[in-house]
Specification:
- It is built from 5 helices and 8 strands; from the N terminus they run βββαααβββαβαβ.
- With 210 residues, it is of the alpha+beta class.
- It has a single domain, classed as Aminopeptidase.
- Strands 1, 2, 3, 4, 5, 6, 7 and 8 form an 8-stranded mixed sheet that branches.
- Strand 5 and strand 6 form a beta hairpin.
- Helix 1 packs across helix 3.
- The protein is globular.
- The termini are far apart.
- The relative contact order is 0.24.
- It binds coenzyme A.
- The site of coenzyme A (COA) has 21 residues, from helix 1, strand 6, helix 4 and helix 5.
């Protein structure tokens, strides 16, 4: 006799449900995401170490476009751009960046750009992170992104460490972020920096076609 036991649900993420009538179909895909948190109170944050030729640029309102463009180029073609539509378009990234930086909880101290020089010796931004105050004691990291050719050298880790130091500087005791489980390199990076999983979230994304 063969077994009809189902595989555990987690083996199927992300999974899609199809429905609809006639020629119109609606597909709902569920993405599994983790909320990950780190305690900042009296914690020694990993030092900010950038590879040679890269530098951190602190927040200034004049950098809103540079952050938005870097965000767009970092997320283009990545899994989160399929989940959060605004990340998939330059205009969406501009709206998002403008919204974050003008919001009440925006934390400039936890918001950084990474710059390097391109082949013509011009400054080029290649990494971005933003921090917001989610509650009186807790910061939230938004959309850390590094443009593909600049990954795997520690730029992402430096951005997260710089944001955590910024949260500490303004007196926040904890920080959290959310990450799509399939984004293994991001999950590993956050674990390495002390983040631990505190919650599992199922994010539904609807797509209509017909
Ligand atoms: C997630 C992301 C920000 C990481 O950026 P990154 O600059 O590649 O990050 P780092 O270089 O610090 O770390 C990535 C890996 O490179 C390795 N690394 C870091 N410095 C290194 C070095 N000098 N030499 C070799 N490897 C190195 C790290 O060990 C890490 O490996 P791991 O994944 O096994 O832990 C980047 O992949 C990205 O922008 N992805 C698309 C957008 C996205 O999904 N963002 C996350 C949203 S939650």
């Amino acid at each position: 006799m063969f077994s009809t036991r189902l595989r555990p649900l987690q083996s199927y993420w992300p999974f899609s449900l199809l429905g609809g009538s006639g020629l119109d179909f609606m597909s709902v895909t569920y993405f599994k995401r983790y909320r990950m948190e780190v305690n900042l109170y009296r914690r020694r944050i990993a030092p900010v170490r950038l590879p040679l030729g890269y530098r951190l640029v602190p927040w200034s309102p004049a950098l809103v476009d540079a952050h938005a463009e870097t965000k767009y180029h970092s997320f283009r073609g990545e899994i989160d751009a399929g989940i959060f539509h605004s990340l998939s378009e330059p205009h969406g990234c501009h709206e998002l960046m403008a919204g974050i930086s003008s919001g009440e909880g925006f934390v400039p101290e936890a918001t950084w750009l990474v710059e390097t020089e391109n082949e013509f010796g011009e400054a080029e931004s290649c990494g971005t992170i933003q921090g917001v105050k989610a509650s009186p004691r807790c910061g939230a990291i938004q959309n850390v992104g590094v443009v593909l050719p600049h990954r795997g050298q520690g730029v992402g880790a430096a951005l997260v460490s710089a944001a955590l130091l910024g949260f500490q500087q303004v007196g926040l005791a904890r920080a959290y972020l959310e990450v799509t489980v399939q984004n293994r390199s991001a999950v590993q990076l956050y674990q390495r920096l002390g983040f631990r999983r505190t919650k599992t979230i199922y994010k539904s994304v609807e797509m209509a076609y017909g």
